[in-house]
Design goal:
This protein has helices at 19-28, 63-69, 82-93, 106-109, 114-120, 145-151, 154-157, 171-196, 206-211, 215-224, 260-270, 284-289, 291-302, 307-316, 327-332, 335-339; strands at 10-13, 33-38, 73-76, 97-100, 125-128, 200-203, 241-245, 252-256, 321-323, 343-348, 351-357, 362-363, 366-367. The protein has 373 residues and is α/β, with parallel strands linked by helices. Helix 1 (19-28) crosses helix 8 (171-196) and helix 6 (145-151) crosses helix 8. The chain contains 16 helices and 13 strands.
Amino acid sequence: MKPDFLKGVRFTDLTWAGAGPFCTKLFSDFGAEVIKIETSTRPDPVRLGGPFLDGIAGINRSGYFASRNSGKKSVSINLKSEEGRQLILDLVRESDVISNNFGPGVMDRLGLSYDEVCKVKPDIIYLGMPMYGEGGPRSSLLGVGMTISAVTSLMWLTAYGEDDPVGPGTHYPDHAANPYHAAFAIAAALRYRRRTGKGMKIDLSQVESTINFLGPQILDYAFTGNEPVQTGNRSLRHAPHNIFRALGEDEWVAIAIETDAQWTSLQALIGTKGGAWDNRLASAAGRLQHIDEVEALVSRWTATRHPTDIVEALADSKIPAARVATSRYLLEEDADLSRRGYWQTVSHEDLPRSVQSSPPYKVDGERVELSAP
């Protein structure tokens, strides 16, 4: 099924790398015409980063690029030439949205500022996604997803310890908060224009957008003065709440005990030989006080069992648990994703087979059908 809710909506899309293209892809999935603009001398860097089909590099062979740009059209324009600038403005005249995730001032220097664009399209919706926004004392600083994760403290908060700031990679800045906040703003602007006939300029600071993930920590500090703490996969209220090694090479399961009744059920599975019936561990407070001991008990039980067996046993006992899935497992073994048709294969001349994730929802009971990048 190819939804056409946005049929007739056109994007002149200058975004590149992660968050920007992921945002505009959300619209192409629903029928908008998204025209991706690149230059031959500076193509989207994701094209060059792989993974490449059969390990053979090529400008059109990156699976990552394909997954973030499926359904879009593509053209190469020299943005630094006057001819290129005029071509962009010609596109803008016939577009509803122009989008970019450059640093502040780049569009101005290209002669494509909001004011210049409004001269040819007064009701344009103009999206910019700089790291710190267009103004302010830090607006000149540049960065990517990992940088944003670091400066917002997301990397520190998700660390396993003081000297281990692993962080969530680029997933949360680039593939969750920022593209979805930008998409919501565009959708609201399109609705506003439909009602009023007026366009809108959207200045989305990716740092501010990512800070939304820190709401609980910010509120806790504001109301109590408590400094945020690093918990890794642990919880400050529940125990055990972590990932535990299972039988097999690099196999793990996530277990989240949220009530004392769930702990009692887990005790029954572990058995008396494991020492799980210690009265000190009957309450969440007691288990948190002796968390290392609790996790050692659980680990000894999980380490001898296959992750699927563990998850099934815990599900039968109404204990929240899930396998820590590898990419291969999700592609080849996850029954729910397979049943729902989540993975789709799309192709074009240089990428004859590319397995991609489709939107995680159905429309009128059907999957959204991806088209070739």
